[in-house]
Amino acid sequence: MQHEPRQAPKPGQAPLAARPAPVAPASEVSGPARPLVASAARADALGGQLARAVARRGEGSVASEAPQAAGVQVLQRQFDVASQTRDWSDLTTIKRSSGGLTSGVLFADDSQGNRLVVKFITDGAGPTFADALIGLLGISTPASRVLDKAETKIAKKALKSRRADLANKQQHKELDKLSKLPYVQVQEFANATPFDKLTTQDRLLLVADRHSMRTVGKLAMADAFMANSDRVTRTQCNLGNLMLAPDGTVLAIDNDARFDPGSTEPALEDIDYLLDPAGAKGLSSTFLAGMLRHMSPTDAMKVDFDAIERWIGEGIMEGAVEVSDQVTPTVMAEAENLEFLNWPAEKKKNRRMRAEEMHKRLVRIRERGLALIG
Which of 226, 184, 159, 229 is nearest to 342 (CA)? Predict the structure, then answer.
């Protein structure tokens, strides 16, 4: 999904660290933290070892910036959308995104001057979980929510009533087709520029900023855990799903998570790759191949490749520690038993299986993280 470009930081303007909203301490979260599988105690021990091993390094390079709090309350708030219902009758116009309606995205303006990004999607749980987890890791995302069933019907009706705003009959047909998808996600319009739309000068400033490059590495680890392959991975680089705000904050958009058994093997391969000594080099090469595209050789020579590789590596390890810290047994138990509005109704066996897939990935992160630190 692409947004209209906005002004990026001026030369010399230092990017600001993203800070998530405060969340309650673990002691305020109701419900016991129960194990998911027989090896839960071993996994918890591995997590403690990983955190202590990083602390012993004394480098300060992977200190966690995420809130040390139980993620379950963030998940609960993210799924609790019933009280946020908006007045869909105040829409004044809709238009296709630059990616076209075939991308499932359109923009909707209301009478208050707000612009909404509206996405038609097949699954509501994955994007919601992904936004919550990424927020727990201290990475900014545009505010978003998946509508409940009642509001989904209202929103679809309101959007279709504005079909005359679209350019032609083909777009009308595309809107009708999209309206058949089960879920609608509403997202704030980000005052930010996709990485692939940045000017050469802004790209050079971005890759020279340690915090931003660590965010890229940390996000890559989170995406590997969630089996999200539509950003920066060992094989591809979609810079459109990373944005830069005017204050220098890096935003993660189009976030998604998969925890079905079929997605675990690729997720484990990505985790193994990132937590290999050569992982930071490979990921930074993929990322820079995208960032330096269409850049002159003279400008490309200004990039400090070694520093970027080092910073992305720091971010990868930071992401491993923070995923290990934040995905607690309580969070996994809640993911197994979520009864919120948009988690698909499934048999208990299938919900249990999803949580166990999550647990396998968590164990792998802890094992490989410890092995990498040595």
Answer: 184
Domains 33-68+192-373 and 79-188 share a fold: no
Q: Where are the domains of the chain?
A: 33-68+192-373, 79-188
Q: What is the pLDDT of residues 16-65, one digit of tens each?
A: 233 333 222 222 222 333 333 334 455 555 555 665 655 554 444 443 44
Topology, domain 33-68+192-373 = 1.10.1070
Q: Which class would CATH give 79-188?
A: alpha beta
Per-residue pLDDT reduced to its tens digit, 240-286: 999 999 999 999 999 999 888 899 999 999 999 999 989 999 999 99
